[in-house]
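Board notes (copied after class):
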Amino acid sequence: MHNFTNLQIWQKGIDLAQIVYALSDELPKNEKYGIISQIQRAAVSIPSNIAEGAGRATDKEFTHFLSIAIGSSFELYTQIILLERIGYIDKNKISNLINMIVELQKMLIGYKRKIDSKLNSN
């Protein structure tokens, strides 16, 4: 088991989810059950899966949940790009958010590889 609150990937995931929720307030209210719901669920899924995986008994289980968090980060990336393309958000406004997502993706992938290599060396 890992103490997930000490993991930088979890902390950055929480920060990202908080920003996504703030961004959601700026979107059209008629999207409440559409894209707003989608981006919020994807953003929350990232730190939630890190936490769930950290609470599992084995590193193999943990890497499974890290994979889900990685997938959710790519889902969120796609949805943010879509928001810009359909004109809901200005491209300049999302550039920092996109950078945060990409940085977190790299960290998640790197952390997963580290655990995978430890598993494969045993």
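Comment from the instructor: Residues 17 and 82 are 18 Å apart (CA to CA). The two ends are 18 Å apart (CA to CA).
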